[in-house]
Amino acid sequence: MLLLIVNPCSGREQIRRSLLDILNIFTAAGFDVRVHITQSQGDGRKAVLEKGCDASVIVCSGGDGTLNETVSGMMELEHPPLLGYIPAGSTNDFASSLGLPKKMESAAESIVKGTPWPIDVGAFDRDRYFMYIAAFGAFTEVSYLTPQDKKNRLGHQAYMLEGVKSLASLKSYRFRVECGEMELEDDFVFGMVTNTLSVGGFKGLVTQSVALSDGLFEVLLIRMPKTPLDLTNIVNYMFLKEEPNEYVYKFKTSRISFHSEEPVDWVLDGEFGGSRTDVTIENLEKRIEILRTGDLPSV
Question: Cα separation of 156 and 202, whole Å?
Fold first, then answer.
């Protein structure tokens, strides 16, 4: 049985135009297809837990948030089935990292003709999961506060427009960061732990070599700039690949902990992940297998 989880609101609602063709592709390939249309936030995870045990493949169609819900449910199954992904969101960072076709029917064909590829999953305090990013600080609230209709109309440009509004209220958080034998304590305005080639549609933010199944995350931490010029230099470093910047930490790790004096809001795959003072993030290496064709993209 193939369980197809569909978010009908993602990405200009294009799934409505392609659903019958997608069902035909899966049926012609010999699958007994069961469809679940999500009704609210969190419904994708619930559907996986209730209906996924009998599935050999679980396919989700939606944005990064829909993928997150699906995988979060799969991680709670004793024997997770294979995963398929038909991207339909406004940005689809992880789909780009996987090299999945943008045309929905082609993505469905890639699932039925594809082979399993192992990918890492991020464990967030062992009670939440993420596929490609856990982040805090400047601009992170944009991903879950931007209205869906604006995402649908503008794509990742919506994130840019909303992000500019938050520049005047740049806020820092005092963190103690522990990673292996390394310990940092500083005021940070932004931090992200990623397993992706792009964030918010921008590949410039992730400049380290990336492998989606190496058991390692790419970490980026930005200290609070002291002057407007410092902020400009940080932006130039991030997007124009200028010389290393004293305000930016970049490294790889399989496990990292954050400790703060006040609750800090986190975002997981573009959705609100909760407000916490202590967070431990672990890489669960090659925990899920996704069906796809071709070679993986690289930085």
Answer: 9
pTM of the predicted model as reported, rounded to 2 decimal places = 0.86
pLDDT tens figures, 77-112: 999 999 999 998 666 778 888 889 989 999 999 999
Give the residue with greater pLDDT, 67 vs 156. 67
DSSP category for residue 195: -
CA torsion, ordered 7, 128, 191, 282, to nearest 10 deg: -130
Q: Which residue has the tokens 């992940």?
A: 273
| Alpha-carbon dihedral sign for residues 113, 116, 120, 122 | positive
CA 183 vs CA 137, 176, 180, 190: distances in Å: 20, 7, 8, 17
Q: Choose the catalytic residue: 69, 162, 218, 271.
A: 271
Domain covering 130-287, topology: Tumour Suppressor Smad4 (2.60.200)
Give dist(CA 151, CA 281) in Å, integer.
28
- The CATH superfamily holding the domain 2-119 is Probable inorganic polyphosphate/atp-NAD kinase; domain 1 (3.40.50.10330)
Does 243 qualify as catalytic in the annotation?
no
**Pick from 11, 5, 80, 9: which is nearest to 45 by CA?**
5
User: How far is residue 77's CA from residue 95's CA, in Å, rounded to a whole number?
Assistant: 23
Q: What angle do CA 150, 153, 154 make, to 5 degrees?
A: 80
